[in-house]
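look at this one:
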Amino acid sequence: MSRLRIRHVTGFQYEGEAKASYNEARMLPASTENQFVLSSNLRIEPNSGAHDYLDYWGTRVSSFEVLQPHRQLSLTATSLIEVRSVGHPAHDLTWDQLADAASRRAEFVEQLEQTPLTEPPAEVRAIAQDAVAATSRPCDAALAICEVIGDRVQYLRGVTNVKSTASEAWEAKAGVCQDIAHITLGALRSAGIPARYVSGYLHPKPSAELRETIVGESHAWVEYFCGNWTGFDPTNLIDIGERHVVVGHGRDYNDVPPLRGVYGGSRTSKLFVTVEITREA
């Protein structure tokens, strides 16, 4: 078990002055079976009260509005979380049993549908079908799909943007964690395996000393259902462990952006982001 402190600062700088803004933040983790939130806080500047709730996918949301003129909107989310490693439990679920389970519950049906960001190209569908043909167990096929996609797509900044699709990233064979997650989701869903997008954080330095603060960033990976929800990080080709902190789930990135909003008055805005992660135990 590890204990991680995360400080995530983000917001917008406006060209000119924003007269008002209306926003949603998804920056604070929730306690789950494998992580426990010891403390969490969101500071909003200019000062604004927030309405907190869980969205449809179970992600913590802070909804707020700033009605006074402002040149910058800044949010600072600070969390202290205890995290346990998550393995791959053995499951003897067959393909027929998976199809039956997936048809009975809305959460599975919705995570089988492709979105414009995850729709896979033919080559990715073929990879998924090869994995299905190579094993009689959905769990084995799902893990193989994650590993093949992660191995074939290079992590490279500047090739894609926040609106890039799985097909565009696959054509480039490069992208960031968001893109690799979208490609993997498309492959898993095309194989009949329910899969969901996970947003959160990854401590980037396994060898970090206690109380050593590391510059990090938001991260994305996938969870697939093959008897229970099982996570894998295709960007780094690793299981979900004590360095991963879950913030939210959804069908793709559009369901879980850290900060989303609208504003009036200024013509343009610039996003800024910093993430610091400290291992405290």
Remarks:
- The chain has a mean pLDDT of 93.
- The radius of gyration is 19 Å.
- The first helix runs from residue 95 to 102.
